[in-house]
Write a structure and sequence with these properties.
CATH topology of the largest domain: Rossmann fold
Radius of gyration: 21 Å
Shape: globular
Largest sheet: 7 strands, mixed
Helix content: 40-55%
Strand content: 15-25%
Structural class: alpha/beta
CATH class of the largest domain: Alpha Beta
Order of helices and strands: HHHHHEHEHEHEEHEEHEEE
Number of domains: 2
Number of helices: 10
CATH superfamily of the largest domain: Vaccinia Virus protein VP39
CATH architecture of the largest domain: 3-Layer(aba) Sandwich
Length: 286
């Protein structure tokens, strides 16, 4: 029998052994850090993305890599999180943002907005789970709009993502993490040939305008926005570009308006026009 080559794949046709226990640990860490729930269907995707990290770090086993994550190595934890979450989204991702929105921002707007007009921007909306989560949170605080004029602008660079978001059609797996009250009120389940699919309610879809937008171009947007979400969008831009973007955002956010950014992002040395008031939650100060 010939010797096994050092880099030969294992019997499962994988370069690295990757157990169910490894996947469970990774899923728990990602859920804790980002709110994203990784189903078993994401097993191969997780393996593929993290295998690149093992090669980059010249590691030979997943156990070595997970030991690095468990040690609290900040730089690698950030790389780990980004590797898993790139192009991933979920309803109510980073739940603390929506809790703050529901308990602080929206009640204050409800109390102070005498014109009964609220404008929101979800920049980098991907396949739409974020703006739909914002819309559901708004309706938690405003069960009936009762003359309120509330609109959400949701934009993304990817036209396919914009179309998916606008259609509001997802697999049932994608809404598995929603609580029963939101499922019952805002989610319509498909029947017949559409079984296994869901569609967000027309009432929510009517609150949101989906548009394709390249953040590097001119913005046909006037504002002002009472709050905006721009999460996990700018992490791939250099600091100069980030400064320019957040300056433009600040010009469109209302006085004392709020900005929600991603779990791996910060405005430190990027913008002085917002105060950090919570975990990746900022308020405009000038």
């Amino acid at each position: 029998m010939s010797a096994v080559k050092k880099n030969a794949p294992l019997l499962n046709n994988r370069e690295f052994e990757f157990s169910a226990k490894d996947f469970k640990y990774i899923s728990d860490v990602i859920a804790d850090r980002t709110g994203i729930v990784l189903s078993e269907a994401k097993h191969d995707m997780v393996y593929s993305r993290l295998s690149r990290r093992l090669r980059e770090l010249k590691l030979t086993e997943f156990s070595q890599y997970l030991a690095l994550i468990k040690s609290g190595h900040e730089e690698e934890i950030l790389a780990f999180t980004n590797a898993i979450t790139t192009n991933l989204t979920s309803f109510f991702r980073e739940k603390h943002h929506f809790e703050y929105l529901r308990t602080k921002v929206l009640p204050e707007l409800k109390r102070t907005k005498t014109d009964r007009r609220i404008r929101v921007w979800s920049a980098g909306c991907s396949s739409g789970e974020e703006p739909y989560s914002v819309a559901m949170t708004i309706r938690d605080v405003f069960p009936r709009l009762d003359g309120w004029d509330i609109k959400i602008l949701a934009t993304d660079l990817d036209t396919n993502m914009v179309q998916t978001a606008s259609d509001g059609v997802y697999t049932e797996e994608r809404v598995a993490g929603l609580d029963k009250a939101h499922l019952k009120k805002w989610v319509n389940r498909g029947k017949g040939e559409h079984e296994g699919k869901i569609r967000m309610s027309q009432e929510l879809r009517d609150m949101i305008t989906f548009k394709q937008l390249n953040l590097m171009d001119e913005w046909p947007i006037s504002g002002p926005f009472d709050f905006m979400f721009c999460r996990n969008v700018v992490i791939y831009f250099n600091k100069d570009t980030q400064r320019e973007l957040f300056e433009r955002y600040a010009n469109l956010v209302a006085d004392d308006g709020h900005l929600f950014i991603g779990h791996s992002e910060s405005l430190n040395k990027v913008s002085t026009r917002f105060d950090l008031i919570g975990q990746t939650i900022y308020q405009k100060i000038e």
